[in-house]
Amino acid sequence: MIQDIAPHKLDNSYARQQAEKEHMAFTFKDGKILLHKDKEGNLTLPVLGQLPGSFETYEEKALYAFSVDQEPMFLILPHDLEEGQTDLEYHDLRDLYGVSPVWAALAGVTASHLNHWYLEHLFCGCCGSPAKLGKWERAMVCPQCKNIQYPRISPVIMAAVTDGDRLLVTRYAGRPYKGLALIAGFVEIGESLEGALRREVMEEVGLEVENLQYFGSQPWGFSDSVISGFFADLSGSSQVRLDREELSEAVWLHRDEIPKQNNGISITAAMIEAFRTGKF
């Protein structure tokens, strides 16, 4: 999955670091990430010295994001990026799947998560005053009313609904991704993970489930969330009642009918592959 970058290690603890030209840089625009493309068409994450304009500007504006293998990496907010000609261009976040090194996808998507949060908290949500960066922790602090905001992480459940040797697989409605998917949704206020899973399964496909078994979790910066995956046994009728606003399709597939999942990024693929190979 996207977080499986061993032997490399992403350290997300907050630190006060001085930006240097050779440090990795993340900047985003309209949901896309700025990347460097070489003459052979290979994509890489840029460093601060490759950004348009003068590096001296970015020394003050660069926000420490995290480190990978003790190498600090920085975020440049869109309004702080200078204009100018470079060999950098914006790409879809999912293009990071093919970027080397192996940790590039996790780093880029996590930086995107931070970018969303910073942009949404430039002003205090209580009194409207301009917020400032926390000095000792990753937080946005209001100097007027002292309101403190920390990065938002939304919990999501994912359900692999099984009926013996059959797995319920779905396809999203109205989304660019057209591959196989599983039922998923955000946890609402006052809900447990288990309660959210049962609700989402009922809402999207009209089925009841039991015997929930935890599979694993995954940070998913695409939606500022962390996903908890469960296998769940069908309880009662297997007749699907599809919510067509959420899904375009939901079908039962036998283990032998499921294609091999080659995506080593998502928990969705990991769960489908685990079922296909008989591990669950």
Structure description:
- The protein has helices at 55-61, 104-120, 193-205, 267-276; strands spanning 10-11, 24-26, 28-29, 32-37, 43-44, 63-68, 71-75, 88-92, 132-133, 140-141, 148-149, 154-163, 166-172, 183-186, 208-220, 225-235, 247-254.
- The mean pLDDT is 93.
- The longest helix has 17 residues, at 104-120.
- Helices cover 17% and strands 32% of the residues.
- The protein has 280 residues and is an alpha+beta fold.
- The strands form 4 sheets. Strands 12, 13, 14, 15, 16 and 17 form a 6-stranded mixed sheet that branches. A 4-stranded mixed sheet has the order 1-6-7-2. Strands 3, 4, 5 and 8 form a 4-stranded antiparallel sheet that branches.
- It folds into 3 domains: 10-116, Nucleoside Triphosphate Pyrophosphohydrolase (Alpha-Beta Complex), CATH 3.90.79; 121-151, no CATH class; 154-276, Nucleoside Triphosphate Pyrophosphohydrolase (Alpha-Beta Complex), CATH 3.90.79.10.
- It has 4 helices and 17 strands.
- A hairpin with a 2-residue loop joins β12 (154-163) and β13.
- Its EC number is 3.6.1.22.
- Its cofactor is Mg(2+); Zn(2+).
- It is an enzyme of class 3 (hydrolase).
Structural class assignment: alpha+beta
Oligomerization status of the protein chains: single chain
CATH uppermost class of the largest domain: Alpha Beta
The share of residues in extended strands comes to 25-35%
- What's the structural domain tally? 3
- CATH architectural category of the largest domain: Alpha-Beta Complex
The average pLDDT is 93
